[in-house]
Amino acid sequence: MRRRSFSLAGKRQNPSExxxxxxxxVLSGVQVISTLGFGLIFPFLPLYVRDLGVSTGGSLAFWxxxxxxxxxxxxxxxxxxxxAVADRSGRKLMLERATLGGAVIVAAMGxxxxxEQLVILRALQGATTGVIAAxxxxxAAQTPKEHxxxxxxxxxxxxxxxxxxxxxxGGVIGEIFGFRESFWITGAxxxxxxxxVVLWVEEDFHPVQASERxxxxxxxxxxxxxxxxxxxxxxxxxxxxxxxxxxPILALFVLALNQGHEAxxxxxxxxxxxxxxxxxxxSAIYLGRLGDRIGHERILLGxxxxxxxxxxxxxxxxxxxxxxxWQALSGIAVGGLVPxxxxxxxxxxxxxxxxxxxxxxxxxxxxxxxxxxMIAAALAAWIGYRGVFVGAAAIYAVAAGVALLxxxxxxxxxxxxxxxxxxxxx
Length: 426
Known about the structure:
This protein is mainly alpha-helical. Helices cover 75% and strands 1% of the residues. The chain has a two-stranded antiparallel ribbon. Strand 1 and strand 2 form a beta hairpin. Helix 1 packs antiparallel against helix 6 and helix 15 (354-383) packs antiparallel against helix 16 (385-409).
């Protein structure tokens, strides 16, 4: 059954006239708004837990940590389920669910009365949202494969823009309006993103016939056993782990570099996060487009090796500005990993399974975010904050090894550029 879309004028839109570039522009805006909205609450979430208090017992530190990890844990479980539903019911529908459902749940967090209620809603958020996975699946399904690296690079650039701006804007909003109001503002932003999806995103959806569609477990088994896919999911886990492992100790490390003076430490931490996010955003779109031309396998291997090398000097910095410079440089490499892994997943996975493919990818990345704080704490306790950066370099070194295995054992499937005059619309 073919799902047709309607324009704002109410006319039926011919699926052959759907422009993947127009969709990409709208979805990029949705990605920026949603990521920015989710990022607004991060700077003050532990402070919000402190203000709410605990009614059932346990330390504030425990419940603050649970408020972060509950969302990632439920996302690990829910993402593959939503991915399978996307391949049966449409990827646009899943993006509407992630944005509009997230709007309601996040706005409700502004009404909670204790930390336990907040944790419950954070767990529901992880089970309901998943904008990145839904966006990636929709872009991958609607974009010609010879442009998938560029398109996924643009989406990830939009993501990094939101990552860079979210904490900064969130800190300002928290100071001006208050914690509860910040959740309502975030809910409103997600609502705007969801409405944008409903009104302006078009999808030419062709579900696989029921007689040819594998069951839930059989479908994921087919994806996971496809040539190269296990290595790519391993790379997705390592990339997310490497990018996340330094986050829990970053502010404390900057404070130590500043000799314990809080003045300027918070601002410097924001600069460091922003520097990495900006270079990752630019790198994602440039290296994604370059991968379309020379092969995403080359970009994947080169980015992983460069990331491993650039994280080593960060263990030896003596000032926040030095760390900001090295983070900006390593952001270039990390930004190259994201579109190359996503584009290769689109090329290697069985046709018609983009929702399940990126749903599982989102689950794998969320699992990395669950274990990253524990690894960071263990490394910091064992060899200090600087050891966490060495650990990140080691993670990317392992990623480079896995990338080498993937590129050697899997045939190069990156498509050749289209000939002049080719119709690029889906």
